[in-house]
Structures are given as C-alpha cells and as structure tokens.
C-alpha cells in the first residue's frame, strides 16, 4: 500500500530538489539558495535519495531532518530501512553502477546504522498538493517501482502509463514531480506535465560541475544551477576511500556510470 501524504494548497514559489547523495556541501548550498530565493523550508520539496555516492550520509540525513522540508522516500532510504545490502536499483551485474553501489551503500549504512527508522520511519512514499490551480503528485522514480529510471527520451507511452497508474490511486492530476534519474527535464504528454527536478549531489552528465534544482511558479517550472565546494566534497570522498569515479564526476561533470544512460544521453 502506497503511503501518501497530502500537503494541501501551496502558495508562492516552490523549490524542487532531489538526490543530495551524501554530498553535504551541495545540500548546504541548496539551503542557502532557498534562502536567497526567499523560499521557506515548507515550500521546498525533496524527491528522495538523501544518501548515495558521497562521503557524508549521516550529516545529510541530519541536515534533512533539521531543514524539515516535505520529503518522500527514495530507493536508498527504503533500502536502509529494509536492512538491504545495496541501493535496490537493479543494476546489471558487473556494470560500473553495480560495482560502485556496493561500496558507497555499505559506507552509508555504516554511518546511518539503526538510525534509519528514526530518520525515515514515518516518511511517505508520495506527496500530493495543489499549486496555482493545478494538482501534482511527487514520486521518486516510477509509480510501481521506486527505483525506475525514466528519461526525457522515453516514448510517450511510458509517461502515459505512469500517469494512469498514479491517477488510479489519487484521482485526476495535472503533473508529476520526480527525481532519481539525475537528469532534470520537463516533458508534456497529453496535456499533463512530468517534471524531473534533477539532483543536487551529482551533476547531470553535461561536463559541468554545477548540479540542478527547480523552482515551480504560477508561470511553470524553471531549472537552476547550483554551485558548491566541489573540492571539499571530492576530498571527503577520497578520504573515505570512495574512489570509483564519482569523486571525479563531481568536478568534471561526467558520470563514470554512463552505461546506465540511454544511448542518446551518452557523451
């Protein structure tokens, strides 16, 4: 049974972000960006995966708890709650993502330990809210699979199926907000809007170190770049022994795990 929390009617600009990925430097920069935009925590919506590749899983979990913004479970949080041994993305055995995920997930699990239930025991799977005359649902990856990767290049049928599955549970909606895949984009299909807000903990494989977040206003969604201390984040990963290529990706803006991407998004 999907755990759904309704936020009611939200007014003013909303800041949408995902994937802190244990990158506390990026998370701190995101909070500073929200303050610059004069958007309070209650109007900042997090799409999950506070932990992943970076060095500071516990610090990010504590920062999210302190920031106290509306949030949902990412697959990484769900796997920690379940006592699993990996992130649950279902990567093909032997791929870069498969090999690396075992190391960083174990690192995060050691830091979080039994506190997973304290941090996420009451976190919903989805959020619903209304804003500027439209109704939205916030999910992590996909409607039936929290770790599903949905890309901007996917055919319309993929998005239509997601909308149908969600509307069967929550009724008519105008848009879906998600994260997980790490690529920010907006896609309108059959009059409904799919918004991937991107992630703040890793750049979107575009050759630049800046990561992404989004702001939803009455005029629609706009994507923003986030700059932060990449040198400190990389140094923390190296000191923790997390050197499978993601630490370099923070700086050069390229994923070591390009094999997870559709061919059209590879460089």
TrEMBL record:
Domain of life the protein comes from: Bacteria
Protein name: Calcineurin-like phosphoesterase superfamily domain-containing protein
Organism of this sequence: Litoreibacter janthinus
Lineage, broadest ranks: Bacteria, Pseudomonadati, Pseudomonadota, Alphaproteobacteria, Rhodobacterales
